[in-house]
């Protein structure tokens, strides 16, 4: 049973009250009564509006469903569909041309292009790895990945090492060419660059040369006492790249945070990052390891002046969206508080530790707190977020627009009204980005009753996807984001397939995006090569001249009209969806793991988060609704894929098989069969319900432990 403390009319979970009052407020010199009174006022003001915005979502979906129902069996009519969306307020008028005026944004976001990591806030080890991925050894990334062909042995392979060194020096030839000859032929002479302005300085040891290309730094480390440098003709021991310029520390899709204890664990890690004292100790390779945040890096310029560069990624925090409430705070009427409002209050409060210089390191040198806001539906919800952040700034006595916002372009209504969404937060916006999985999940849910959708693989070639990706960049540039805010692209989900990433992900900087998501520090180092290969500023200048991709293309749902799949095709698609869903759900429900490398049906490890469930469950729900698959076929696939997932997890001693009484299996069934009715097609309500039950069973709390699985599935 949750223990609460009364605070200004709110009932605050005891662990949250203690965390805020004992760990967060005292260093800030802030009075607890003042904070909780202000928080209560913010909940009183914004919780009703939050609920009203969710009601508007539901009303619009009801109207869209009814429109498709009345036209069942008719060809899709783009003009009539667009007119209907305007009539119900789903589409709003485009704002007059404008440019954002966001100020006080750090260079890593506003003016530089490079990789971005996304990391679950509940995993301190991952957080530290990501924050420290600002700099990465190119030698290590190449040697330890499949970019260099061949299998790795137990010890050092000189042949593989020679391929790594050759690849790295070829990169240097392209990015920072010498005035004469190649890096491989440098010998023991000091490097003289074709463009002397690329030489930034030297490390304190005098043996590290700091270079710059396309705004990203490169260290060439000379050390003939190092095992690699000793055998290198030039004495080069390593090439180190500035890699993950920024990292999103995630409280949303990559975590399983369902109660006050989970929320406090996440908030505590965010505090540790902002104060710089987050430490994680663990065993690795038979020895104890202590991991902490890296310090800054110090150099001497050619003029003899000290140069200090950040040793860590610029850290952003992703709050949750508008949908979920949290039992961590109960409102005066007894209902749970909107979780996104609590996130805004607490993560911004913690961010004050950085702005006031109370930590061991500085995160934002320009005085901003960076909050990423996911799953906003249209400009009214963006405007709500802007006003909410105003109120939080007032409570914390922050200058207006100190809290910056990243708007994730992952919902259909936001994509269709992107300029209006940006306009609503034009004084504080610091990024927009795209995400295929969530965006496709919302596409399927919005057009659920229009007809059966394409297979997932075919959707990537549908007209709406190209329009979505193009419009995100084109509208962002038209609204003045260049030089002021990030334009981002989505995740490379296969951390073991770096050769494929090197071949394909260059498309993201070529699109004019200043960042794109990667799943690991190694991937960040390798993806940094793409930002050396592509001049993103030049690409933005070129793309800024393009007309915006047609709205009609964006609004054309990916329907399968005229396609006749074989039984084998249908079974293959169904099994693929079910296997991916089960492989992720079992970790979420049973282990509370919100992001991990999950093997797909072909045993390829995919870095998955909750968006995977949304697209898979919505796809199956759509095919069920339109008779492409039956309930019996879904049940048979669940049995087949449960056995497959059990087999894939056989080496995990903590794994619980997906038997018929499995909460995880019941959660998967609830996600599928409740997919049509689920608000926005979101998976969180069902996942939270089953995860809470799993935690209660683990703690043997009778109120939940005695509750049958069938009752949970029914909600």
Shape: globular
The tally of beta strands, per DSSP, is 23
Major sheet attributes: 8 strands, parallel, barrel
Strand content: 15-25%
Category by helix and strand content? alpha/beta
CATH class placement of the largest domain: Alpha Beta
Low-confidence stretches: 700-707
The named CATH superfamily of the largest domain: Malate synthase, domain 3
Q: How would you write the strand order of the largest sheet?
A: 3-9-14-17-18-19-20-21
CATH topology of the largest domain: TIM Barrel
CATH architectural group of the largest domain: Alpha-Beta Barrel
The termini sit apart by 20 Å
Number of helical elements: 28
Q: Give the radius of gyration.
A: 26 Å
Helix content percent band: 40-55%
Mean pLDDT across residues: 95
Tally of discrete structural domains: 3
What oligomeric state is this?
single chain
